[in-house]
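Researcher: We plan to redesign the surface later, but first we want a full-length starting point. Tokens attached.
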């Protein structure tokens, strides 16, 4: 039985003052819940997250990571630096990174590998655009994104990671994949992994992300292959994030 996992992706939001209330609220609100919970905060607030969440059952992580170990890469943050801050997770391949910052499948695979080497748990995002869904190439797109990581890092690496299926058309739009649409792609991801290793597939946690809210979380997470959520907008409101964690 896979334990449910809920991660908040704060994106580029927050301030020391607003984060303090949010972190305290989440820490207290999920203290007695069964799901595993994490928040992925902007880099400057990692220290604040560490201070506010240390000793709690909420882990913290980053929203991206450099594919390089160290060196002359101005503006980048390495996986070992994140590990130094007590990060447990790093999101890689979020659609905003893929579309605005040119993270190709091979860059995402390199970031995944860098995170693994530093003992971080990569949260690998995959998902199709609306245009790709309408052209009926969802399966091909998601498989291509997944295969880039499998061929670079090997199937055993996936056992130590988390995958998030995030249809791009549902991120921040208020449109949510129906439980059936999401389940279909989650099952496809699991089947692709099972072709390589049935054991890894059975244990792999696959999150859904894309306008998950308290009102739709329960139904989505009741699907057999949906093991939790990657939450954007609703992770900025403590009560909403806690309600989603409770649904998990
Ligand atoms: C995300 O950014 O990963 C996300 C799922 O955002 P939202 O929940 O706002 O759609």
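Model: Full-length starting sequence:
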């Amino acid at each position: 039985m896979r334990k449910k996992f809920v991660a908040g992706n704060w994106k580029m939001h927050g301030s020391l003052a607003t984060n303090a209330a949010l972190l305290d609220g989440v820490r207290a609100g999920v203290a007695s819940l069964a799901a595993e919970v994490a928040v992925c905060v902007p880099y400057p607030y990692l220290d604040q997250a560490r201070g506010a969440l240390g000793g709690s059952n909420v882990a913290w992580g980053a929203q991206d990571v450099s594919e390089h170990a160290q060196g002359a890469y101005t503006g980048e943050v390495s996986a070992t630096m994140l590990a130094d801050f007590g990060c447990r997770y790093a999101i890689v391949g979020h659609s905003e990174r893929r579309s605005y910052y040119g993270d190709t499948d091979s860059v995402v695979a390199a970031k995944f590998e860098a995170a693994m080497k530093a003992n971080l748990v990569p949260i690998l995002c995959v998902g199709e655009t609306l245009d790709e869904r309408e052209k009926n190439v969802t399966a091909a797109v998601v498989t291509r994104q997944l295969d880039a990581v499998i061929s670079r890092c090997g199937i055993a690496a996936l056992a130590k990671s988390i995958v998030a299926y995030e249809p791009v058309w549902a991120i921040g739009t208020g449109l949510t994949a129906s439980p059936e649409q999401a389940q279909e792609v989650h099952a496809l991801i699991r089947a692709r992994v099972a072709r390589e290793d049935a054991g890894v597939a059975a244990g792999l946690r696959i999150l859904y992300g894309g306008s998950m809210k308290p009102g739709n979380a329960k139904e989505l997470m009741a699907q057999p292959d949906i093991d939790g959520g990657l939450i954007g907008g609703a992770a900025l409101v403590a009560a909403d994030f806690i309600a989603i964690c409770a649904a998990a």
